[in-house]
Every structure is written in structure tokens, then in C-alpha cells.
Amino acid sequence: MKKRYASIWFPYLTTDWQSKRQPALRDTPFVFAHPVHGRMLISAASAAAEKHAVVQGMVVADAKAFLPSLEVLDERLGLQEKLLKAIGLWCIRFTPIVALDEPDGLILDISGCAHLWGGEKKYLQHIISRFAQYGYQARMAIADSIGAAWAVTRYGKSNSIVESNTQLEALLNLPPMALRLEVPIVERMYRLGLKKIKSFAGMPRSVLRRRFGDHTVLRLAQAIGSEEEFILPLKPIAPYEERLPCLEPINTDKGIEIAIEKLLEALCGRLANEGKGIREASLIGHRLDGKVEQISIGTSRSTAHIPHLFKLFALKISQIEPALGIELFILQAHKVEDAEANQEILWDTRTGLEDSNLTELLDRLKNRDTACEIFRYFPDQHYWPERSMRQVSSIIEKAGFDWPLDRPRPTRLLARPERIHVTAPIPDYPPMVFQYKGVRHPIRKADGPERIEREWWIDPGEHRDYYAVEDDQGQRYWLYRSGHYGDKESDEWFIHGFFA
Hints:
- The chain has helices spanning 13-21, 47-50, 60-66, 79-90, 120-133, 146-155, 167-171, 183-191, 205-212, 214-224, 253-273, 306-314, 356-368; strands at 5-9, 30-36, 39-45, 71-74, 97-101, 105-109, 139-143, 160-161, 241-250, 276-287, 292-303, 326-338, 376-379, 389-392, 412-423, 433-436, 439-452, 464-471, 476-482, 493-498.
- By secondary structure, the protein is α+β, with helices and mostly antiparallel strands.
- It has 3 domains: 1-236, Alpha-Beta Plaits (2-Layer Sandwich), CATH 3.30.70; 241-366, 2-Layer Sandwich (Dna Ligase, domain 1), CATH 3.30.1490; 412-498, no CATH class.
- Helix 9 (205-212) packs across helix 10 (214-224) and helix 11 (253-273) runs antiparallel to helix 12 (306-314).
- The longest helix is centred in the middle third of the chain and has 21 residues, at 253-273.
- It starts with a strand and ends with a strand.
- The relative contact order is 0.06.
- The model is unreliable at 343-348 (pLDDT under 50).
- Residues 16-153 form the UmuC domain.
């Protein structure tokens, strides 16, 4: 089979990405810049900026001198590499062999693929149109060699197809830099008047080697196709998935249990070897009638303990309707994390959250009843009470710091403060009576005020003056007045929590 390659070039990769995130920049000249020896140099320019002769490598001050409206953004380190790799993995839908052509291109081995789209022309048009839909400007060319495809993409007619065995003809009128040569060699060629590839393509190879080095001869041979060139394809991470086709359709609970056991043995064996465990997983069953049945589980900590995972799936087998039978089972681990290695010990002294028996009990409770929700919270570095804690997803995560104990805080904090009616004397005095949900609470004891300023860098608003109060029944509450006394109506009071 004849080898065919495609080269894709993204001349505005990072700026197109920024335009997608900020549509207002789409028609605005803007650049990314980074400091070099005390000067800001342009690392990437948008298409609108290039129309005003602003290009990569230019000093920002010089560009602003003739284009004052130029928007300058700080360069995001590593962004271009991440984008290119993500796009390369996405392109595997067009061919299984995709390689990075850093810093702004891809190389695709499309041998035997284009006919699936109705030929190379439709194949090329489809890929370019898909990139356009996602907001990326791209150029593409197809040829027998990587070098020819690369050259035509960047220096030839946009979105071209070079017919087989015509690489040399396609290269003749292109400049020397189309052969991916070093800048000093290209400059030497220009000084000698060799401004087109046709000016030196017919020279004896010994002359080219003597004047311009082995690399020039190699690049020319690779572009023409007389020298083979190899690429390093991207390898996507294999998903944590196991499949079990059935010789006979399965329509009983016992058959489903056997399938789950076999799938867990295979998947957990792989995870254990990699030191990982399951946090979220699904069992998918494809029925004979074409419908799909699915059940999902989640764990409080990563685990590859087969008996425990089997119990979680067993709790939900009743939700599967096999009908005429299931012919294919698929077990997918959607979320996988590093797990502690299992070690045989004479006795286990771990208690509390470190006890695996506790975490397995929590998993069974959550997976038995979908209405059961178990959350764990850590203190967060915020003064504002609603933000002073954060929910954590793993039961083994460690807090960075302890809960503050220097100020009284309620055992139960309302997710949203509720308005109350309060009778209070002059400013900074605690309330005497408050009414909450139609019940009147005379206050016997009070402590405060404790002023908590709003975090102005997050949202604007008034400060709060908090009081810890106790009513005549011995119940304790956390109340606050919003803003300064007299600035608003006198009933601008709220209840925010309850003490034990």
C-alpha cells in the first residue's frame, strides 16, 4: 500500500484558543508576550494583529508604537504544548497514527484512511471544516512524503493535495526554508542567489553536501521521497475497561454476578499492578434487542478489593432488566486514583477514617440508597462563614490546617442565612428578642459583637456583626446584623447557625 501523509499547521493556535474563551477578542488585534532580558517579546500574534504587521518575536513596545490599540496578554507557559497534544489525540478519529510536529503542527499517516470519507479531497475538507467549527484556523496538505506535505502546508497553496510521485514538482517553486533547514543554511543560500528549491534541486548531491552539509541533502531526499522518514505517534492512554462477550445471552441474576466477578478480576488485577484503585465505575450490559442497561458505583477511597466492589455492584443488580438476555458486558472505571498497597499484617491497629472497614461500610450505605449522601468537610482559609469550609471527595485526604477554635462557631451552619425580626437597643448592643419562623425567642444571654468583614476581592457588600445568643429555653443561636446600624431598615438581621 502506498504511503500517504498529511501535515496540519495551526498558525494561530494559542490566539485562536484565547479567542474562543473571550469572543470579544475575535476581531481585536492582540498578542501573547513574555519577558526576555527586561523587554517584553511577542510569542504569538493573532490573525488580526498580523494584518497590522505585528508578528512573533517583535518587541511589544515597538508594536504598540504603530498600533496603540494592541491588546497584550501574558504568555501562558506550556499552553501551546498542551493544546497541540490534546488536538493530536482528538485527531486519532481520522487515523490511528498521529504525531506531534512541534511547535504548531501535526503529522498524520493517512495510508488507507481517506477512502472512508470518500477520497482525499473530502477527507481534507472534512478535517479543515471540523477545526473551523471549533474556532481553529488550520492549513493542511497531503503528499507521499512528510517533507513534501510539511512544505506545501506552510509555503504552498492552502489545503492542497500533492498527487503521488509528484513531490519534486510541488517543491520546485517553494523557498529553501520549506525543506525544514536551519536558518544559517537558508541565509547562505539566499546570499548565493538560491531563492527557490529548483535552483539547487538538480545539483549533484556531493556538491550540495560540500556546500550546505549532510542535513540539507537528507531533508531534500526526505521531501522528494527517496529517503524514508519516521515519526513517533501519540499513544493515548488505554482506558480502564474490560469486556466480556457471552456465548449465550445472560438473563439471570446469578449469570450477571458471575460476569461481574470475571470482569472485576481482570480489571482489578491490572489496577493492582499499577498501584491504583477504583473511585467510580459502571457496568454496561448490551441486550439482544439493542438496548443498554447500566449500573454505577462510587467509593470513598480508591480500592481494588474485589469482594468489596462486588458487594457494591450486587446491591444494584436488581436495577438491571436483561429482557431476552445480555450478550456483552463492559466494566468501565471512570475515575481511578492511586491506592495504598495491600499488605498482610498480624493485626490492624488503624481506626477511624483509616479503617478500611469503615470506608467499605460508607460505600455500601451510599450505593444501597441513592438518597443517602455522605459528605466530608475541611476548613478553608476564608473569614466569610459560608466559605470557611470546603467539601472533599476522598476520605483519605489530609487537611492542610485545623479548624480555628479561638472564636465560637455553631455546630450547624445554615447554607443560606435566614431573615429574622429582632428587637435591639442602641448600636452594638445585642438583641433582646428575635422572632424566627413564627416563634418568639426572648434572649437571656448574649456574647458579641464579632465583626466579620466581607471579602471584597470576591464580592461586594456589607460587613456583619455576629452575636452568640441564648434564649429563655437554653437554646443557643448565631445571629448577625448586616452593615452599620441605621444604614438600612432596623430589621436587617439574620440567623446563621445553631449551637449544640
